[in-house]
Amino acid sequence: MSDQSIDYGRLVERALRQVVRAALDVVAKQGLPGRHHLYITFRTDHPGVALAADLRARYPTEMTIVLQHEFWDLAVEEDRFAVGLSFGGAPHRMEIPLEAVTVFAD
Question: How far apart are CA 87 and CA 95, in angstroms?
């Protein structure tokens, strides 16, 4: 018998990222149901995060976005999502790898 263990924490983390992806996919295709809104916290310093320079300067390590009323062009891929949001009245498009997400709440 091997002395290696099964990394259940990593398996659960991977499964939860798929839940996030599936929920975002529903929202991308059908919109937010009822009074739902999604809070998504992610690491802005994670490789693959595409974020405007001014936002990266304001949030050098972590940022929380809310998908509720004013977001557009939500696109979900296998390992990432992209969305348009307004900050200070200026439109911004961001791309976030699912591995950068640290908190997801509805």
Answer: 15
Lowest mean pLDDT among 30-39, 47-56, 90-99: 30-39
Three-state SS letters, the chain: CCCCCCCHHHHHHHHHHHHHHHHHHHHHHHCCCCCCCEEEEEECCCCCCECCHHHHHHCCCEEEEEECCCEEEEEECCCEEEEEEEECCEEEEEEEEHHHEEEEEC
Of 105, 103, 59, the C-alpha closest to 94 is 59
Q: What's the sign of the alpha-carbon dihedral 72, 45, 105, 90?
A: negative
Confidence of residue 3 (pLDDT cuts 50, 70, 90): low
pTM: 0.88
Distance CA 80, CA 22 (A): 11
